[in-house]
Write a sequence for this structure.
């Protein structure tokens, strides 16, 4: 892990971290597989949510993610998600307030997600978080998706940050693994449905955005920021 320096930015996962959408993504995939005649239920899909589609589809179906059939599935899943599930989604309690608090500490907020750009924008708009984010990276900014580090590296580049300048906020072991490979430490949230054991690579774990906000002064964000301010005097 890269040695911490002045904390200047936060890399943000979206699904399961800021927005309660992991079950919706799993359901839209399960619906898609059913339409294509595949018996792959929600229960098999759910543990893979947070992993990029380039890995999820091959793992569940055996298809190359660039094949014609996989492309048709990906397109149909997006249609199902946008039509049936997106309108029902909301930000987790405290998410808006947490992002506001991070911005008050002069931290750049950069989205680091494997979601497609168009889907990401719709998610943020639906949850009322779009105006709080400084920069975004999505699947179009990387060749490989989580748990590979490409998205994290792209987010660092977008924010003009070194690995030690940032912390990752995520909810899955794929976030933790991707950030670790990129030299970034992760603060994890349980609200995405993962256990502390699965998130054990994180430097701190909280229930959700609201509980992190309630403990903000003792959190790695505040402590790293306080050290940064002290060292700059």
């Amino acid at each position: 892990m890269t040695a911490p320096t002045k904390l200047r930015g936060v890399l943000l996962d979206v699904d399961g971290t800021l927005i309660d959408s992991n079950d919706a993504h799993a359901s839209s995939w399960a619906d898609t597989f059913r339409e294509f005649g595949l018996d792959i239920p929600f229960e098999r899909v759910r543990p893979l949510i947070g992993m990029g589609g380039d890995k999820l589809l091959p793992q569940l179906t055996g298809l190359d993610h660039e094949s014609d059939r996989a492309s048709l599935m990906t397109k149909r899943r997006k249609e199902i998600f946008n039509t049936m599930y997106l309108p029902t989604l909301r930000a987790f309690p405290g998410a808006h307030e947490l992002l506001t608090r991070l911005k008050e500490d002069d931290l750049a907020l950069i989205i680091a997600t494997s979601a497609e750009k168009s889907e990401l924008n719709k998610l943020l708009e639906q949850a009322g978080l779009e105006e709080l984010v400084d920069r975004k990276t999505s699947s179009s900014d990387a060749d490989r998706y989580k748990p590979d580090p490409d998205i994290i590296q792209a987010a660092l580049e977008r924010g003009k940050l070194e690995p030690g300048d940032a912390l990752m906020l995520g909810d899955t072991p794929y976030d933790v693994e991707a950030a670790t490979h990129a030299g970034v430490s992760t603060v994890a949230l349980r609200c995405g449905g993962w256990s502390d054991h699965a998130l054990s690579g994180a430097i701190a774990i909280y229930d959700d955005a609201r509980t992190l906000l309630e403990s903000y002064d003792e959190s790695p964000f505040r402590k790293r920021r306080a050290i940064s301010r002290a060292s700059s005097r």
Q: What stands out?
A: Residues 28 and 81 are 5 Å apart (CA to CA). The longest strand covers residues 108-112. The chain has ten helices and six strands.
